[in-house]
Design brief:
The complex is a heterodimer of chains A (485) and B (221). Chain A has 485 residues and is mainly alpha-helical. The radius of gyration of chain A is 21 Å and the shape is globular. Chain A has a two-stranded antiparallel sheet with strand order 1-2. Chain A is built from 19 helices and two strands. With 221 residues, chain B is mainly alpha-helical. Chain B has one domain. In chain B, helix 1 runs parallel beside helix 5 and helix 2 packs antiparallel against helix 3. The longest helix of chain B is centred in the C-terminal third of the chain and has 29 residues. Chain B is globular and about 55 Å long. The N and C termini of chain B lie far apart (63 Å). Classes of the chains: A mainly alpha (485), B mainly alpha (221). At the A-B interface, helix 5, helix 6, helix 8 and helix 9 of A face helix 4, helix 5, helix 6 and helix 7 of B.
Chain lengths: 485, 221
């Protein structure tokens, strides 16, 4: 029974989200959260095996469409969701014992976490560009209350900014979607199918270029707000810094990816309708601007989570730039970098979460000598930082190297900008993390032993891909890159 | 010169009223009146959708007109009224600086919107295509309102007015989006307002007021 796997993939987070709401915060609630996320991951693996064996397919009529491009994101999303739920078990217990969170808040956290996973998976698998919008907006809604979970003035401010900025951004995307529908309707007629991506792709060369150009600009700015592209990135550092750490990990590792995925789907359509360089040039421009801006803002941060949030913006800029260049190599590198960034950045946030709990502060200046407090946490932060900065032999090095060499070959003028940004980012982050890990210390033990496994699991994967990419993964990335054209 | 059919005139009239209401909201200081203006805008939006539905015999437009009436003219204003009463901000008056300047900026935005929309309107075959410019103008005015307001509730009303403008754009360019998408958007808006309702209480408890200016501490120092 093939369709069952897909239904299961969406049903598990939805049902467990409802269950966690109804049953409330119990002793076993964290375990239920982990089991549900594990089940979702298992379903995603089975679905992937199915797609690899039998090729793309529809589900529930034509409303959902799974091909090698989105199944790759589905697996990544489900995997990071699972490790985050493992990480958040002891983390949230510690937060509760420190008196920062109460039982009702923990219930809210777990149910919203599962609902967030549900919206992400719907956004990834839907075939309908309108439903994609609905799911992206729903993802914002589920996370707004999570960002303000601590109810401190700063977290409320961050959540408000997040809601308003993303709301305005997503409104632009809705206008873009309306224009897209308008262009499609002239070709496909007034059927409910005119927003289905698979139908749109078939007629993409017939879509009216002027409308499509305008539509893509609105969609890029709209979804770009969620990716964290400059100049509408302001919500991102605040939301990452003030929300609980597991939320920062999924925002950085998943939400940004899914928003970028939405842009990629739109880019395929715009490429077919307008001249092929139009969408690519726009993305390269926005990508470079974002990369450069983030690199120079990194150094001014005093809060460790804010700093890594800016690092996420930087990497999103680089990935957007890679997809903007287009072509098989750059797309391949873009997908690889997205995967590496997701895994590495969520691992870093896990490590940072433990570190801030140990030291009781998020201020960079007050976190010192993690290596003496807990060598595992210290090393995981150090290794994660080295990985995200693109040091060999980690996988980020491979993808950054590919992006850089491709840019040198085809767009030589971008090389100084890229190298400056990467260099500045390296100096800033390394300079700040080094004393945090190796300095002198004063800290206290935690009541619940931290879950270090997810951190090393992620880093091991990043390391493995840096040294050796399994052939099926290569094939998969190639397939996805080819679909992007 | 061919005369414009009555239905098209009605649609244009409705759209102009919506634009007028958008300007009225821009200048309205009292929070209760602001919500009433928003409800009125929803009602006119519903009427205009209904006229399009009757003229073009698009059945799903009856549904979206009904949905608009229920959600934007009744349910959302009711929720907002309740919130305002419960938060004791019924008599809140905002000191808007420079209403004339804001209005002038609004006029400029309307001109920009018309210029952007014109090439698209020319390509459209719908009876209501003339209103696309107005729809975009309403979106931009709502955006301006969100920028100029300092209280939380008026900002949210601005956000919802922006959604009204987008809805108008959808009906004027394409006779509305597919039903499943419209339902999804309506659900998002409703859930969004409910979540914001919860959020308002959190803000008030923390800051003792709904003034957004309290929330300008997070900066890249």
């Amino acid at each position: 029974m093939e369709p069952d796997i897909f239904i299961l993939l969406l049903a598990i987070p939805l049902v467990s989200g409802a269950l966690l709401t109804v049953l409330g915060e119990r002793e076993w609630a964290p375990n239920l959260n982990i089991i549900a996320s594990g089940g979702t991951f298992l379903a995603s693996v089975l679905l992937t095996a199915d797609i690899v064996a039998h090729g793309p397919r529809f589900a529930l009529g034509e409303q959902f469409f799974i091909d090698s491009m989105n199944v790759f994101f589905v697996t990544l999303t489900a995997f990071v969701g699972m490790t985050t739920s493992i990480f958040s078990g002891p983390y949230m217990k510690n937060e509760r014992e420190h008196g920062r969170l109460s039982a009702p808040r923990l219930r809210l956290y777990k149910s919203m976490f599962q609902m967030f996973m549900f919206t992400m998976l719907v956004a990834l698998t839907t075939n309908n560009m309108g439903i994609l919008w609905v799911a992206m907006e729903a993802a914002t809604l589920t996370t707004v209350l999570l960002v303000s979970l601590y109810r401190t003035p700063a977290s409320l401010e961050a959540a408000w900014k997040y809601f308003i900025l993303c709301g305005v951004g997503i409104a632009q995307a809705l206008f873009g979607t309306i224009l897209l529908y308008f262009a499609a309707e002239r070709v496909l007629g007034e059927t409910g199918n005119a927003l289905l991506w698979t139908h749109l792709v078939d007629v993409k060369s017939q879509l009216e270029p002027h409308i499509m150009a305008l539509s893509f600009i609105f969609l890029l700015v709209g979804y770009g707000t969620k990716v964290g592209l400059a100049p509408l990135h302001n919500w991102l550092p605040d939301a990452h810094a003030e929300g609980p750490t597991p939320v920062s990990a999924v925002l950085s590792g998943l939400l940004l990816n899914v928003a970028l995925y939405a842009i990629l789907r739109c880019k395929v359509l715009a490429d077919g309708a307008v001249s092929p360089d139009f969408a690519g040039n726009l993305m390269m421009g926005f990508g470079l601007l974002t990369l450069l801006m983030a690199a120079f803002f990194l150094g001014r941060q005093k809060d460790i989570k804010r700093m890594f949030a800016y690092s996420s913006i930087e990497h999103m800029g680089l990935i957007t730039f890679a997809f903007g260049m287009g072509g098989a190599v750059a797309n391949y590198a873009g997908f690889l970098h997205m995967t590496m960034h997701s895994l590495t950045k969520s691992a870093i946030f896990f490590a940072v979460g433990h570190a801030t709990q140990k030291t009781g502060t998020q201020l960079i200046a007050d976190i010192r000598g993690l290596i003496h407090i807990n060598p595992l946490i210290g090393w995981s932060l150090m290794l994660g930082t080295l990985a995200i900065l693109g040091m060999p032999p980690f996988g980020v090095f491979a993808s950054e190297f590919m992006i850089l060499t491709h840019a040198m070959k085809h767009y030589p003028w971008t090389t100084p900008i890229l190298l400056t940004a990467l260099g500045v980012a390296f100096a800033q982050i390394f300079g700040k993390v080094q004393p945090m890990v190796f300095g002198e210390t004063h800290a206290k033990p935690l009541p619940h032993a931290p879950a270090i496994t997810p951190v090393f699991l992620h880093l091991a994967l990043v390391l493995m891909i840096g040294l050796y990419i399994p052939p099926y993964l290569t094939r998969w990335f190639h397939e996805a890159a080819r679909m992007l054209g | 010169m061919s005369t414009i059919p009555l239905s098209a005139q009605l649609i244009n009239l409705c759209a102009s009223v919506i634009l007028l209401l958008a300007f009225a909201m821009l200048a309205q200081r009292r929070v209760m009146q602001l919500i009433n203006l928003f409800a009125l805008q929803g009602l006119v939006l519903c009427l205009s959708t209904l006229v399009v539905a009757v003229t073009t015999k698009q059945h799903h437009l009856y549904w979206s007109a009904g949905l608009t009436l229920l959600l934007k003219a009744l349910l959302l204003p009711w929720i907002l009224h309740r919130l305002v009463r419960k938060l004791y901000v019924k008599w809140d008056i905002e000191s808007l600086v420079n209403v004339p300047t804001t209005m002038l900026v609004g006029v400029v935005l309307v001109m920009i919107a018309f210029n952007v929309a014109q090439p698209i309107s020319l390509l459209s075959q719908t009876i209501s295509r003339g209103t696309l410019g107005i729809a975009l103008a309403v979106v931009m005015l709502a955006f301006l309102m969100m920028i100029t307001r300092t209280k939380a509730i008026p900002q949210v009303v601005g956000f919802l007015a922006m959604e009204n403008g987008l809805f108008l754009a959808a009906t004027s360019a394409t006779y509305g989006m597919p039903m499943v998408v419209e339902l999804g958007i309506a659900l998002d808006v409703l859930v969004g307002v409910i979540i914001l309702g919860v959020f308002f209480f959190q803000i008030r408890d923390q800051f003792d007021s709904l003034d957004i200016r309290n929330m300008e501490r997070l900066k890249d120092n």
